[in-house]
Structure formats: structure tokens, C-alpha cells
Amino acid sequence: MYKVKVYVTLKEGVLDPQGKAIQQSLSSLSYQEVEEVRVGKYIELFVEPHEQLEERINKMCDELLANPVIEEYQYEIEEAVR
Amino acid sequence: MYKVKVYVTLKEGVLDPQGKAIQQSLSSLSYQEVEEVRVGKYIELFVEPHEQLEERINKMCDELLANPVIEEYQYEIEEAVR
User: Fold this and answer.
1) Which residues in chain A touch residue B22, judged by CB atoms under 8 angstroms apart?
2) Name one GO biological process term (chains A, B) (predicted).
3) Per-residue pLDDT of chain B (82 residues; tens, 9 = 90+)
């Protein structure tokens, strides 16, 4: 079994209103040192061993997990004991 | 300037209907090797240097970024050149 950690983030230049809202909330809570906030998704997949694992992870990200128009993704694969 | 990468995940045992929906969608797209999906948040904070940085990050997570009742968080701090 593998655990795949997928990080989906907005591409640079894409506006992030959710991040802006969090930054403003932090500022009003007296955390003025936070200059910018960007919000993304963190997705854990527990995957049975499969040939072409990386290729299939890439396809899952392109087809379902990320929106390639405005988002980019990275992932790490590690062995999982369950 | 520091870049803080915050990972917010549901605690073990907390139901994750969004993850379940993704797992079922992946399965119907022929990715049956994915047994379980857990969805969390990935938040990047760009922070000015501050005394007690870690202590303040912990407080931000407890007060705003995560819901301590059902979520847990981890973070990494790295130097950011902007």
C-alpha cells in the first residue's frame, strides 16, 4: 500500500479570495506580520500497488483532483503500513 | 520573510464525505486501486520575521486555521526570498 500526498495550489497570479479573507482575519486578530496567505488542498490517497503508479497519479490529478487551468499540483509517494 | 506551510487534516476517525466522494469518482474513472481518500487544507503563510514565530503560528492555527475539535495541523517554516 502506498500513501500519496498531493498538494494542489493555485497558479501564481491567480487571485485567491479565500486566502485574502484569511489574511485579513489574521490581521484583525493582531497577526499583522502575515503578509499574504494562499490556500490550497492537501489530499491523501491510499493506493494499492499498481504498475505505472506515477503515471496514473498524474492522470488522476489532471482529470479530477486539480483544475489544470488555474491550479498546479505536486505529490510525494511513500510506503504506508496499514 | 518566512514561508510557513500549514497542513490541516481531519483527525483519524472523523468521517470525510468529501474524500469518500473523490474516492468513488476515481473508482468510476477506473482508478480502482485507490482505496481511501482524505482531504485536508494546505495553507501557505508569508510572514515577516517576528519573535516567537512558532508560538504565534500555533496560535493562528488554533484560533483560525484549524478546528481543533475535528482537525489537526502540522507546519514547516522555511526562509522565503521575495
Assistant:
1) 43, 64-65
2) 'de novo' IMP biosynthetic process
3) 999 999 999 999 999 999 999 999 999 999 999 999 999 999 999 999 988 999 999 999 999 999 999 999 999 999 987 6
